[in-house]
Q: What sequence folds into this?
């Protein structure tokens, strides 16, 4: 791993204790040009993690608190009439940052959630018939509270599919939580984080990730995993080809973080659950999709 990536991991692991795997998956998603959905109960550090990632990557950052009365124009921007010039002037919204933290995204109405779709997929927004490109790189990290909590709206399947990974931090280990209580609120460390790269360097890494080699055997392994979700019996809806492409991109990024220029089956396994679980719909009797995806890794032959 190059020194810049080592510094990134060192700082993030000091900021959020005991969540090394989640850190690595999130950075793999960033390197694969994907968006991330962090789903967990409030108070486990989702927002702090997102802010920390933006800081160490040296990206322009904006946090937006989603609420049920928020309008699309509050996120995208608005045209304001200038009487002196007799014309409209565009005032960009907070989405025009390289790193957008959409905090508690499922507290917003479906209308606002859908306003993100074009931005996440096309890296552009359309307002009053005019198209505006978003910064490069552009990344959305959204946090989501569990759906059973009051005041939440379920994300539509089309938007879930735009998130390359869904990650869950979970509660800290006993050792990490004790260290947290002894050391105090981790947010106070955010100001001490150093940018280990910048937008240009990140785009260079993303280009290198795209060039990681994928053997025919690795391609066939991804195909068998995707096909297994389409078999009748457990899933109401299986994975699409776009989901398979997301697995490939994430596996390449994982291989890059491991310092290799080719994908191994272990790279595919490392990202499979995070990429696939939120994209399938299980039949009610078969329970948790993440558990089924993990179980599938033991049932589908590597070669």
A:
């Amino acid at each position: 791993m190059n020194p810049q990536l080592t510094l990134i991991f060192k700082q993030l692991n000091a900021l959020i204790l005991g969540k090394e795997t989640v850190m690595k998956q999130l950075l793999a998603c960033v390197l694969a040009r994907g968006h991330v959905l962090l789903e967990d109960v409030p108070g486990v550090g989702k927002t702090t993690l997102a802010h920390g990632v933006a800081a160490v990557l040296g990206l322009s950052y904006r946090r937006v608190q989603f609420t049920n009365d928020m309008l699309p124009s509050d996120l995208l921007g608005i045209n304001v009439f200038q009487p002196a010039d007799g014309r409209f002037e565009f005032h960009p919204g907070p989405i025009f940052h390289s790193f957008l933290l959409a905090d508690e995204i499922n507290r917003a109405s479906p209308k606002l959630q859908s306003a993100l779709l074009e931005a996440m997929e096309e890296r552009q927004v359309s307002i009053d018939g005019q198209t505006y490109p978003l910064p490069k790189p552009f990344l959305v990290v959204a946090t989501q509270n569990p759906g059973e909590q009051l005041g939440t709206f379920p994300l539509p399947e089309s938007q879930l599919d735009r998130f390359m990974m869904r990650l869950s931090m979970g509660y800290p280990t006993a050792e990490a939580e004790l260290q947290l209580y002894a050391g105090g609120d981790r947010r106070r460390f955010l100001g001490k984080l150093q940018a280990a790269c910048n937008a240009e360097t990140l785009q260079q890494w993303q280009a290198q990730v795209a060039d990681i080699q994928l053997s025919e055997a690795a391609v066939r392994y991804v195909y068998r995993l995707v096909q297994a979700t389409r078999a009748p019996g457990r899933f109401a809806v299986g994975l699409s080809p776009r989901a398979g492409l997301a697995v490939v991109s994430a596996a390449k990024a994982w291989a890059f973080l491991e310092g290799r220029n080719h994908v191994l089956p272990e790279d595919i396994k490392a990202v499979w659950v995070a990429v696939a679980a939120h994209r399938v719909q299980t039949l009610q009797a078969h329970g948790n999709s993440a558990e089924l995806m993990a179980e599938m890794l033991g049932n589908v032959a590597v070669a």
About this structure: Residues 3-202 form a domain with the Rossmann fold fold (CATH 3.40.50.300). The longest strand covers residues 77-82.
